[in-house]
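Good morning,

Attaching, inline, the backbone tokens for the sequence recovery test we're adding to the shared suite. The designed sequence is right after.
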């Protein structure tokens, strides 16, 4: 099988459509398909911050649940939205407020429909996706070699939030360890979560969150080709949002 792994969309629906079109996926008016039977893989953070989070949910639901030509694994923003839809008490900030605003503008009937679609997507998703045929693991914020095959709370925290130290930057962002420097496995680890201006490849890991919602690009990593395909964001550039690794 051949795969197209798409980074953090964050409500950038138009860019997502443009990217899947560029990757060769087609619609017959009702269903999406790829003439070469490729599969899409979404690595989490479908919603929040961007202009059209609910349309992204609808699209990914169609591709994963209906058309069955895609896989989805959640990110930290997905986890928070899931807890919100369950009625749990969550803080409506850090981007969730944009999704909640869209949701509250819907009729009760439409709210029920989008809520059920997202809950179905989330509950059927694996914490991370193993693709043994292309020797790859797709995990939202990455995963250590010794965590692959585990699904406990420690691994869940790592996959959703990264290798956090507990300390914070002056602007409130958590300080994370650069786990990829210590990765020496033979499988690709494809991840996002931390926005970077260009794909960061190190030790058979690749970060493909190119910060579409912050005005840069939306990226897909193709396997087994090991090729990155991008489309340009429609959003204004916020240069301060991008992470600089200490190489």
């Amino acid at each position: 099988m051949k795969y197209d792994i798409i980074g953090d969309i964050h409500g950038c629906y138009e860019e997502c459509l443009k990217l899947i079109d560029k990757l060769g996926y087609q619609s017959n008016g009702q269903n999406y398909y790829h003439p070469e039977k490729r599969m899409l893989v979404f690595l989490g953070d479908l919603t929040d911050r961007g202009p059209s989070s609910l349309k992204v949910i609808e699209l990914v639901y169609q591709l994963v649940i209906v058309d069955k030509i895609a896989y989805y694994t959640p990110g930290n923003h997905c986890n928070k939205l899931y807890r919100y839809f369950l009625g749990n008490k969550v803080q409506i900030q850090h981007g969730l407020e944009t999704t909640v605003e869209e949701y509250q503008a819907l009729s009760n009937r439409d709210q029920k429909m989008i809520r059920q679609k997202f809950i179905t997507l989330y509950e059927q998703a694996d914490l991370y996706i193993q693709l043994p045929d292309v020797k790859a693991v797709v995990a939202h914020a990455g995963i250590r070699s010794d965590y692959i095959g585990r699904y406990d709370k420690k691994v869940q925290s790592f996959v959703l939030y990264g290798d956090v130290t507990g300390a914070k930057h002056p602007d409130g962002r958590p300080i994370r360890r650069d786990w990829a420097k210590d990765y020496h496995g033979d499988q690709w680890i494809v991840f996002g979560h931390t926005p970077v201006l260009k794909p960061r490849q190190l030790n058979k890991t690749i970060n493909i969150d190119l910060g579409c919602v912050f005005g840069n690009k939306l990226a897909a990593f193709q396997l087994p080709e090991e090729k990155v395909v991008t489309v340009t964001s429609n959003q204004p550039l916020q240069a301060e949002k991008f992470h600089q690794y200490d190489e």
